[in-house]
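Progress against Task 2.4 (sequence-to-structure conversion) is shown through the following example record, which the project officer requested during the mid-term review.
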Amino acid sequence: MSNTALSHGLKVRHLTMMGLGSAIGAGLFVGSGNSIAAAGAGVLISYAIAGLVVVVVMALLGELASARPSSGAFSTYAAQGVGRWAGFAIGWMYWFMLIMVLGVEILAATEIISGWTSLPQWILAVVLIFAFAALNLFGVKQFGELEFWFASIKVAAIIGFLVIGVLMVLGVIDAPSGAGLARLVEGDGGFFPRGAAGVAAGLLSVMFAFGGIEIITIAAAESTNPHESIRRATFSIMWRILFFYVGSVLIMLMVLPWNDPALKEGAFVAVLERANIPGAATVMEAVIVIALLSAFNAQIYATSRMAYSLSERGDGHSVLLKVSRTSVPYVAVLISVFFALVAVAANALDSQGRVMGALLDAVGATLLIVWVFIAISQIRLRKELEADGTLRLRTWAHPWLGIFALVSIAAFALLMLFDPVGRGTLLLACGVFALIIVVYFVRARFVSRSRDLPAQ
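Structure tokens generated for the chain above:
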């Protein structure tokens, strides 16, 4: 009989840096400029609101994960708290979303790298995809160690960026004229140049940026002490990420006008170029590549483990349960890698990026659906966890915290319905979710009928 069990090689430091690494990727390094362009300085409000809701949702998820560690994380809890159909739909919806993000991370990284070499972008993408597939197949301990150092570089770079930014604002090193807090209210429109609509548009952009933090609850099942590891890692990650995001965007807005075209092209590099520190912009460009590749690495891990967990519960093909001698679900890893290649190929064939763009726009809406089921699962499972005596991380103000999350998510969805782009992405995400639910019930009926057939 083949082994189908995962290992337990991850430590708290691995989980913490993995959560940071998966969230600090394209959303911050590439998407922050677009968020600023959408809302101006008002994007700080967008980050604060989205950040608060993410902290609440992660607290709810952390409670569940510390009590019942599972590679399926929120998918498992949705199955337990809402119904098996919900676990199936949320799990495969999340898997599909991350597959799309895999394509974005690798394409964003190779776009930068292609500027350093004469190699075509698609060749670089294919080489890197296979390289990270190999890294994920080595074993979870090696993966965790690599991700720890990848994420450490990113965190150090952001801290360095924040320090340089503060020195620019204080006038200690070179900075554009007018740099400082006053720049937040300068220019046409002041702090809210796009008005409330801009803040709403910024929210839609920011929601994608915060995606990835939930990966630590997926990884918790492979940690040495899952219950304690998730309890210690969850809150430290939430507040650090909020600080990094808001702090970085605040520096950008204090150094350069919100409508400076350079911010949209590459906000971090644009700020450092104004500092006139030799090599600083080039180093940050390299760090951005590392950040994107690190997030790509973590997301290969997350997609493979989610597929493994779904199959373990009978909601995926049994082939996805095959585990290597290093306790890695290698078939699930290879399938995730295959679809990453498909995403790259789709982008190459779709020169205008319409298909990939539409799918990526739906990522934020997909996260909203995932968050809804996290909140509902926590509310419905709380009494059961208390009765089991497994509740190690207790969120405050139950059930009002979960209700606050649901009301906030409903408000986000309402904003999307009044936004032309947001409305389309929300409807697309809901359509995909509904389709997956239909697949679940059709599959369930087919399996039921197959079992009822007489033996031949």
